[in-house]
Design a protein that fits this description.
This protein has one domain (47-428): Porin (Beta Barrel). Helices cover 13% and strands 50% of the residues. The chain has helices at 2-51, 64-69, and strands at 53-54, 75-80, 83-98, 122-126, 131-140, 143-152, 163-171, 174-180, 205-214, 219-226, 241-243, 248-258, 261-275, 281-296, 304-313, 329-331, 337-339, 341-354, 357-368, 379-394, 397-410, 415-428.
Length: 429
């Protein structure tokens, strides 16, 4: 019995010695495993953070041309399987005072200013420039796939209900959906607070299909078939009515000299179809040429000058001041239309006092070469002038005060003018 106890004690003692000797080894194994698990968790957290980051906008991404063309950044909400999804936009509040009867109270449209308008002031507060943009980028075998879905609150009926701005997709050299017309140049939109922009600017979104052919590293040629339709006022007793038969055809050449300078030349064919009471269809061809560009005046200060010169016939629907007015053509008989010539020029200088302070100054002129069959109360010409002072306390915020002047003249040389002050506050997200 004593021998058995001595043997058992020896085994117990040896076991204790073995455990004590092995303790550091087990501790090392457990520590290594724990560190590997921590590293794995940190890697997972990093991946999640990379999918949900706020990209820092580039300098001066709050300018109007950058906002309109979507170069203002956003939240990356997903980045999986070669697809990046972003959400961006801004909140904007406008505080507007008109010194005379304005016509349009929330967008400065000289053509809407009443003739011989009274000097009655008007105040309007509006959040309708507020915007939401959802975009994506994917790598595919056909090339880079990009999409954009964008809404704002600027409904024509005056309600703050979301309105579709863009619904566009492109892969490789092909694009389709609703986007800026190929006949316009969004990069010449001056840095204004006013929603509408210059009277003379070609500015319209179109449902279209577009093909872009690069010519060199800095130049390209694009072709698009765009939404068919026309903008004509048909008197009730004319016997004519509108038809949509043929899409508009646009050709665009663009050359980028530097990051801040470019030139663009676009041509447009705009078929205007109508039918008589006897169901006889006829088509007039509107046409236009649009030369636009930006000139980087100073690389150090980023000052630039934007310009546009446009001429054509039957293309009034493409202009800020004339869209919806019915000035593409005029009814000259019960069987025929006559297109109306239009000419427009504008130029705006953007000066940066510092990285946080800028001023834009410019002028636009728009004129129709009216036809004898038009009423004398129809639009003849308009003018648009603007000067502002804008402050950028951060990459996500913009405040500004703007003065606008507009004048509207009719065929019989009656006129109305108005001055407007607009204070705006914009917050990007």
């Amino acid at each position: 019995m004593g021998k058995y106890l001595r043997l058992t004690g020896s085994i117990f003692f040896l076991s204790i010695i073995g455990l004590l000797a092995a303790g550091p080894l087990w501790a090392q194994v457990d520590t290594d495993s724990l560190l590997r698990r921590i590293d794995s968790l940190e890697a997972k957290v990093d991946r999640i953070q990379n999918r949900n980051i706020r990209l820092l906008p580039q300098n001066r991404s709050q300018t109007r041309s950058a906002l309109e063309s979507g170069r203002y950044g956003g939240f990356v909400v997903a980045d999986l399987n070669n697809t990046k999804l972003t959400i961006g936009g801004f909140i904007q509040a406008d505080f507007i005072y008109d010194f005379k009867q304005p016509g349009n109270t929330q967008a400065f449209v000289p053509a809407s200013i009443p003739v011989n308008n009274a000097a009655r002031g008007n105040t309007a507060f509006s959040p309708r420039q507020t915007r939401l943009t959802i975009g994506s980028e994917s790598d595919t075998k056909l090339g880079k796939l990009k999409t954009i879905l964008e809404f704002d609150l600027f409904n024509p009926d005056g309600t703050s209900v979301p309105r579709l701005r863009h619904a566009w997709g492109e892969v490789g050299r092909w694009g389709a959906g609703q986007y800026w017309s190929g006949f316009m140049d969004i990069d010449v939109f001056p840095n204004t607070l006013d929603y509408e922009g210059p009277n003379a600017m070609v500015f319209v979104r179109q449902i279209q299909v577009r093909y872009t052919q690069p010519l060199s590293r800095k130049s390209s040629l694009a072709f698009s078939l765009e939404n068919p339709g026309s903008d004509v006022k048909y008197p009730v007793d004319s016997g004519l009515s509108s038809r949509t038969l043929y899409p508009d055809f646009v050709t665009q050449f663009r050359c980028n000299f530097t990051e801040g300078s470019h030139i663009q030349l676009a041509g447009l064919l705009h078929p205007i179809s109508s039918q008589t009471a006897a169901d006889v269809t006829s088509t007039e061809i509107g046409w236009g040429v649009n030369l636009t560009g930006t000139v980087e005046v100073s690389k150090r200060s980023k000052d630039n000058f934007v310009y546009q010169a446009t001429y054509g016939e039957g293309i009034a629907r493409y202009f800020n001041d004339l869209g919806g007015g019915g000035y593409d053509a005029v009814v000259k008989s019960k069987t025929a239309l006559q297109t109306i010539p239009v000419m427009a020029v504008m130029g705006f200088y953007d000066h940066w006092w510092s990285d946080k302070l800028s001023t834009s100054l410019g002028y636009g002129y728009l004129k129709l070469d009216n036809r004898p069959w038009q009423p004398v109360t129809d639009f003849k010409s308009s003018q648009y002038g603007v000067v502002n002072l804008l402050y950028y306390p951060s990459s996500f915020v913009k405040f500004g005060l703007e003065y606008l002047y507009g004048k509207h003249i009719t065929i019989d040389n009656q006129s109305g003018d108005n001055s407007r002050l607009q204070l705006s506050m914009m917050y990007k997200f």
